[in-house]
Amino acid sequence: MKNSTKGQVKRTKRGPESPGIPISDTPSNARGDQLCMLMLGGLLVLSAATLVGGMYYGIMGFHTSFTHAPILYWDCLGYFLLVAASILVARAIGSLSFFGTVALGTRFGAWKAVEAIGSKAPQLKRVLPGGASWLSTAYVQSVCNRGLYKEAIAAAQAEWDRSSKDPKQYQHLGTICFTAGIACQGLGDIKQSHAWNEKALDILNKCSEELAKPQKGMLAKAMAPQTEQAAGQLKMQLAATYFNVATYYFNVQDYRRAKENYRLALENARIAPEFPQKAEMIKFGQEQMARLKHS
């Protein structure tokens, strides 16, 4: 999924209620929407077929082997493992049906499909305990990019209420908090925007520290490119969030905190991968640091 920092570059029009934040009026890719829904339906059918077929064949085989005289113990074990494997594979395909479809929709600009699936995150929490917050994030980013700030804030708040008390889910809420901060800014609610940005900083910094720890093992080495990419995206979001927090403190004349957050914004921006606002952010941050030199 593309994060909010990248997503902003696609916005082409400025809404009258949010003069500083351009919004996208690009229509959803109709063919992409159709392809996404076909992919979702196809994978869900495949998941159900895998589950039903594997369990039926495994249970029938287990019953036959168990009632055989003498009992075929190795066959019973094999059929039991088949049932277990069919459950795990069906669940994996079911998860892919949602995550893969949203990723495809984001890539193709099929925001109708993304929002249709992402809006179902609360109902899918029990089915996808580790991924419901990811779907919520996709939905919040999409509606925020289209200037539907109230909807974005409401969905972000609902996801925060559901997941923030769970340590495992808490670490996935950084992007959604960052996006909610942008939405509040779009509505002119600067205090709430700052509150969301502070939440985002806490989560994003913890995730960045976790990714910076040396990883051991073959799997960690194989995942190194993805880990590096994720770390780069975190630095990009941290730079933008620190910049927003610094601007808030500057506007309320807390120049000491403004200077420190501009410094951290520049620090993260310089090591982040290229993104559309990077050069402008660094330039403005340096100018602000010069103004605050003696603060």
- Please indicate the percent range of residues in DSSP E strands (runs of 2 or more): under 5%
How would you describe the shape? Answer: elongated
Helical/strand content category:
mainly alpha
Instruction: State the helicity in percent bands.
Output: over 70%
Calculate the terminal CA-CA distance, rounded to whole Å: 40 Å
Pick out the low-confidence regions: 1-19
Main sheet characteristics: 2 strands, antiparallel
The CATH topology of the domain at 214-295 turns out to be: Methane Monooxygenase Hydroxylase, Chain G, domain 1
Give the ordered list of helices and strands.
Answer: HEEHHHHHHHHHHHH
So, CATH architecture of the domain at 214-295? Up-down Bundle
Please give the CATH class of the domain at 214-295. Answer: Mainly Alpha
Number of continuous helical runs: 13
Taking strands numbered 1, 2, ... along the chain, how are they ordered across the largest sheet?
1-2
Q: Give a count of the beta strands, DSSP E runs of length 2 or more.
A: 2
- The radius of gyration computed from the alpha-carbon positions, rounded to a whole number of angstroms, is 23 Å
Q: How do you describe this structure in short?
A:
This protein is mainly alpha-helical and 295 residues long.
Could you please describe the fold and organization of this structure?
- There is one protein chain.
- The chain has helices at 4-7, 30-67, 73-108, 111-118, 132-145, 149-163, 167-170, 174-186, 190-212, 218-222, 224-251, 255-271, 278-291, and strands at 13-14, 22-23.
- By secondary structure, the protein is mainly α.
- The protein has a domain at 214-295: Methane Monooxygenase Hydroxylase, Chain G, domain 1.
- The protein has a two-stranded antiparallel ribbon with strand order 1-2.
- β1 (13-14) and β2 (22-23) form a beta hairpin.
- α4 (111-118) crosses α5 (132-145), α5 (132-145) runs antiparallel to α6 and α5 (132-145) runs parallel beside α8 (174-186).
- It starts with a helix and ends with a helix.
- The relative contact order is 0.09.
